[in-house]
Amino acid sequence: MDAETCNIIAVAADWHTQPGKEEAVHRLLLQAAAAVREHEPGNLLYLVHQDDTDPTHFLVYEQFASQDALDAHRSSAHYQELIINKIVPLLAQRQVTLFRLLD
């Protein structure tokens, strides 16, 4: 594995919305995914999942080429607007875990 591949950071965001907020979060997550794909060259993958049995449960799985790419993602205008300002207030539970690719 080359040095560049070893810098990949995966993010697993496991979220539960407040009751009745799942449709709004669903819509906002699709907007966020589109913005990330369009504006973040350091993002390698951005997938949004919703639990089949619990519609308030979401998993966002992301991969970034480096720590700098992840930092750019978190400081982007679309992340601040959509995730921090609009989605986070609608969540009942939020857990984010970072993973580094093993070589």
Describe what this molecule looks like in 3D.
By secondary structure, the chain is α+β, with helices and mostly antiparallel strands. The protein has one domain (3-100): Alpha-Beta Plaits, CATH 3.30.70. Helix content is 41%, strand content 34%. The protein is built from four helices and four strands; from the N terminus they run H-E-H-E-E-H-H-E. Strands 2-3-1-4 form a four-stranded antiparallel sheet. Helix 2 (22-39) packs antiparallel against helix 4. The chain is globular and about 40 Å long. The relative contact order is 0.31.
- Give the CATH level 1 class: Alpha Beta
Tell me, rounded to a whole number, the average pLDDT.
Answer: 95
What share of the residues does DSSP label as strand, in percent? 25-35%
Choose one word for the global shape.
Answer: globular
Count of folded domains: 1
Structural class: alpha+beta
Please state the second-level CATH architecture: 2-Layer Sandwich
CATH-defined topology = Alpha-Beta Plaits
Q: Helical content, roughly?
A: 40-55%
Low-confidence stretches: none
Number of helices: 4
Number of strands: 4
N to C succession of SSEs? HEHEEHHE
Q: Give the neighbour order of strands across the main sheet.
A: 2-3-1-4
Cα(first) to Cα(last) distance is 6 Å
- Give a short account of the largest sheet: 4 strands, antiparallel
Radius of gyration: 14 Å
List the helices and strands and how they pair.
Blueprint: H1 3-6, E1 9-17, H2 22-39, E2 43-50, E3 57-64, H3 67-75, H4 77-87, E4 91-100
Antiparallel strand pairs: 1-3, 1-4, 2-3
Helix pairs in contact: 2-4
